[in-house]
Amino acid sequence: MIKVLLVCMGNICRSPTAEGVFRAQVEAAGLAKQIHIDSAGTHDYHIGDAPDGRAQAAAAKRGYDLSRLRGR
Predict the structure, then answer these.
(1) Looking at residues 43-68, what average pLDDT do you find?
(2) CA quadruple 50, 39, 29, 59: dihedral sign
(3) Residues tagged active-site
(4) In this structure, is residue 31 part of a structural domain?
């Protein structure tokens, strides 16, 4: 199992967006059982928060759903 952790400061925009896009690409390639994907922040002020609405809207425009992700 390969583990990939995508990190940014608050875990509400960049890293959850990267997680959503990377997860979709991994699933499309049929590698979801071989690669564990997660994201996290280096600061704790957005723990439990959904991704920023602007990030979610930009991702949704491109076919990515970030709504289930939460900052940690």
Answers:
(1) 96
(2) positive
(3) 8, 14
(4) yes
Number of structural domains in the chain: 1
The answer to whether residue 67 sits within a structural domain is: no
Give a yes or no: residue 28 inside a domain. Answer: yes
Q: What is the dihedral of CA 15, 51, 68, 63, to 10 degrees?
A: -80
**Model pTM greater than 0.85?**
yes
SS (H, E, C) the chain: CEEEEEEECCCCCHHHHHHHHHHHHHHHCCCCCCEEEEEEECCCCCCCCCCCHHHHHHHHHCCCCCCCCCCC
Report the CATH number at residue 31. Answer: 3.40.50.2300
Question: Per residue in 6-46, pLDDT tens?
Answer: 999 999 999 999 999 999 999 999 999 999 999 999 999 99
Boundaries of domain holding 57: 2-61
